[in-house]
Amino acid sequence: MATTVTAPPVPKSPPDSPVLIDAATLSRPNRTWVPLPRWLRRLAGPALVVAVWQLLGATGNINPRVLATPAQVAQAAWELAKDGELASNLLASLQRVGSGLLIGVGLGVLLAVLAGLFRLGEELIDSTMQVVRALPVLGLLPLVIIWFGVGEEPKIALVAFAAACPVYINTYAGIRGVDNRLVESGRVVGLNRLGLIRHVILPGAVPGFLVGLRFALTSAWLVIIVAEQLNATSGIGYLMNQAQAWYRTDIIVLGLLIYGVLGLLADSLVRLLERRLLVWRRGFNGA
């Protein structure tokens, strides 16, 4: 007579048990069904928007006097580039933004270091900067014109003000957010106060500074758009203001696209700095 052997039941996991994901799964490179470079796949969304925009304009669903088509914008860009007008105005905008960022970022870092490292600096600087950052940047335009006149100085001053606040806030938070256990470890290995600042605190604040720099670059381009449309004789904003009088929406859209592309390039530059300066930090890149 045959004996039937019954296998023991397999224990089931409780329904509420968490799903464990190991580190190897998180660090595994992402795979995609589209065999194209990542930067090319990221352009698919903007390319689709441009295609739909051109189609709506070509079929007459969008009035060209209200919004020019991409083809008309490209034609306007070619005409301005051929005359040299686009290059000269673009250079003027870049000089203003570069000068303002140099002043604003330097001032923001200096104030953040003083407030972050010293309690007296925090008491004197931080409360003031918290009030200043709540002020609308463009609301200061009449006052800045009274102070500096209508030349280049007020435009550079507005950019510097817009850049200093986000750099200060994020760098200060980065300094105060350094893990105290790292500071204690530095003291154990014999680092003095200057060594702790140089090798522990300031490197730990670099991620916060880079976040503030990205916000500063965005704020700088937003401010310069308005600043160049008031009492300016050059710049992309001035070019857009002149085009408004002639209902040249192609030039206006071209100016907006230039600001957007410059902002994207600036953000890409900061991302490159992050990859170079923060090689020790591996973050989650998406599943």
UniProtKB/TrEMBL annotation:
Keyword Transport among record annotations: yes
Transmembrane parts of this sequence: 97-118, 130-150, 156-175, 196-225, 245-266
Membrane topology: Multi-pass membrane protein
Keywords, in A-Z order: Cell membrane, Membrane, Transmembrane, Transmembrane helix, Transport
Annotated ranges, domain ABC transmembrane type-1: 90-270
Signal peptide start and end residues: none
Alphabetical list of Pfam families matching this protein: BPD_transp_1
Entries under PROSITE patterns matching the protein: ABC_TM1
Record localization: Cell membrane
Main location: membrane
The keyword Transmembrane helix is assigned to this record: yes
Protein name, per record: ABC transporter permease
